[in-house]
Inverse folding.
């Protein structure tokens, strides 16, 4: 009798698992994009650790970068072991630690350079979906630019279903340069300390001002 009860309980659990698994809703590409848009429409700031690789058939070796990034609108601060890059959208500071120099220049919105902030603002309006894959953790979408004169051939993004955040981007530009960017320890809408997007030159570091004054 006990054995029969155990069998019925086991059968019931298996039935529940199978039924629950079958009821999971597989998202479409449009649903994933809508969820991302809803998420990033509320973004005021973003902080993350990043790993980046850049490679090309024309490069002797793959370049590796890592560090921390904080974004707020088009302003950003990138801290790497050998370099710090900061802009408040008026001025850009590039601090090269090995050269003990800070280059100061007018901010230029260069459309040939991939901008994470710009991409998060226009991924669903400036791109179309070329490929879509659903995974246990999220989704993978390959996007093609609608602009035939875009500086980029494609952008592939990895999304995380539990919080609708983009965790990885693979970008291929028109010169076949491939850039992979992994975002780790993401903080969505963290408080941004005052002065984050203004660089204060350390004592003893040479300033080279390239601005048009």
């Amino acid at each position: 009798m006990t054995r029969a009860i155990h069998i019925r309980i086991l059968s019931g659990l298996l039935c529940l698992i199978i039924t629950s698994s079958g009821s999971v809703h597989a998202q479409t590409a449009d649903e994933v994009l809508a969820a991302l848009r809803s998420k990033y429409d509320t973004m005021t700031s973003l902080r993350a650790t990043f790993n980046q690789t850049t490679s090309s058939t024309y490069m002797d070796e793959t370049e590796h970068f890592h560090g921390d990034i904080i974004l707020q609108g088009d302003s950003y601060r990138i801290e790497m072991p050998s370099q710090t890059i900061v802009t408040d959208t008026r001025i850009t500071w590039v601090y090269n630690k090995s050269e003990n120099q800070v280059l100061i220049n007018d901010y230029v919105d260069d459309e040939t350079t991939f901008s994470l902030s710009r991409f998060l603002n226009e991924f669903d309006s400036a791109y179309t979906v070329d490929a879509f894959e659903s995974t246990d953790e999220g989704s993978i979408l390959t996007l093609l630019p609608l602009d035939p004169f875009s500086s980029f051939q494609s952008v592939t993004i990895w999304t995380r279903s539990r919080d609708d955040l983009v965790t990885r981007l693979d970008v291929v530009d028109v010169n076949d340069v491939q850039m992979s960017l992994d975002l780790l320890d993401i903080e969505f809408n963290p408080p941004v300390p005052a002065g984050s997007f203004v660089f204060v030159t350390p004592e003893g570091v040479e300033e080279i001002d390239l601005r048009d004054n």
